[in-house]
Design goal:
The protein has 274 residues and is an alpha/beta fold. 40% of the residues lie in helices and 19% in strands.
C-alpha cells in the first residue's frame, strides 16, 4: 500500500479546504490515507500525489466529488444532544394551531449538515408527533452525495436506533426482515415529507432555500477556520426568520463570530429581531 508523505498530506489539506472550507490537522493524516488508499489503487496511481493531480486536473469531477465525500467526517446518531430536542418540543407545543388567528406559515427547519440522516429523521419524528396534521417543512442538506443517498434510503442497523424513544420506533420505524434482518427503516410516509439536497455551506446558498424558524448547524464549524465560520454563520442567519433559533454542537460557539444573535443557552442562539 502506498505511503502518504507529509508533502502529499498538505496537498489534500488544501484540496478539502478549497472544496469545503474544512481544515484538517496533521492528526488526520492516517484518516486521509485510510479513506483514499482504495481510490489510489482503483485508479492505478503510482502515489497519492498522482491521485491528487488527477483530482485537480478537472478531468474527473465525479471522482473529485467522491474524494470530498470520503474526506468529510460524518459522525452522528439519533436524538443527539437532548436539550436541542427539548427546545424543539417547547417551540412546537407553544405554536398556534390552525383556526387560531395567530396561526402563521408552515414551521420550517433546516438540518444544514444532515450527514447520513439520523439528525433530520429525529427532527421529523418530533414534528410529526407534535404538529400532527399541521403544516411543516423540513430540509436536510450535506456536501456529501454519498451521505445524502444513505439518508434518503433511511435504513439503519438496529443498534443505531437505540437512542430513538420506544414510542417513536413503534410509530415511525419498520423492522427489517429477510436480507434486512438486523436493520430498521424509517417509515416511507415520514421519509417523503423531507427534502434532501446537496449544499456546500462554503459557497453561496441556493436562492430558493427560503427562511427558517430553526436551523441545526451542529458539529460542522469545528472543522472551519475563523473566517470561514463567520462567512457560513452570516449565510445561515440570512436564511433565518427574525427570532429564529440556531443550534450548534455542544463544543461549538458563536462567540466573536456575529452580533446578530443572542445566547439562549450553551449551543442555543436566537436571531435578534430588528
Amino acid at each position: 500500500m502506498h505511503t502518504l508523505s507529509d508533502q502529499e498530506f498538505t496537498l489534500f489539506q488544501r484540496f478539502i479546504f478549497e472544496a469545503a472550507g474544512i481544515m484538517l490537522s496533521i492528526t488526520k493524516k492516517p484518516m486521509v490515507r485510510g479513506r483514499l488508499a482504495k481510490r489510489v489503487q482503483t485508479h492505478q496511481c503510482d502515489s497519492f500525489g498522482d491521485y491528487y493531480d488527477m483530482l485537480r486536473s478537472g478531468r474527473n469531477p465525479v471522482e473529485a466529488q467522491l474524494a470530498v465525500d470520503l474526506l468529510t467526517t460524518n459522525e452522528t446518531y439519533f436524538f443527539r444532544e437532548a436539550r436541542h430536542f427539548a427546545l424543539l418540543r417547547e417551540l412546537l407545543s407553544a405554536r398556534p394551531r390552525s383556526g387560531d388567528e395567530r396561526a402563521t406559515a408552515p414551521f420550517r427547519i433546516w438540518s444544514a449538515a444532515s450527514s447520513s440522516g439520523e439528525e433530520v429523521y429525529s427532527i421529523a419524528m418530533v414534528l410529526a408527533d407534535l404538529l400532527a396534521d399541521e403544516p411543516w417543512n423540513l430540509i436536510g442538506s450535506d456536501i456529501s452525495m454519498r451521505m445524502l443517498e444513505r439518508a434518503r434510503r433511511g435504513i439503519y442497523a438496529d443498534e443505531r436506533a437505540s437512542h430513538i424513544p420506544l414510542e417513536y420506533r413503534r410509530r415511525f420505524c419498520l423492522k427489517g426482515t429477510d436480507k434486512y434482518t438486523g436493520s430498521m427503516m424509517v417509515d416511507r410516509a415520514l421519509r417523503e415529507r423531507i427534502e434532501f439536497m446537496q449544499i456546500n455551506l462554503n459557497q453561496p446558498l441556493p436562492a430558493a432555500l427560503g427562511r427558517f424558524d430553526v436551523v441545526f448547524l451542529r458539529n460542522v464549524m469545528i472543522y472551519f477556520s475563523e473566517d470561514t465560520k463567520r462567512e457560513v454563520v452570516a449565510r445561515i442567519l440570512w436564511q433565518m426568520k427574525q427570532g429564529g433559533y440556531l443550534l450548534v454542537g455542544h463544543s461549538e460557539s458563536l462567540h466573536g463570530l456575529t452580533d446578530a444573535v443572542e445566547t439562549v443557552a450553551p449551543s442555543i442562539y436566537r436571531k435578534r429581531r430588528q
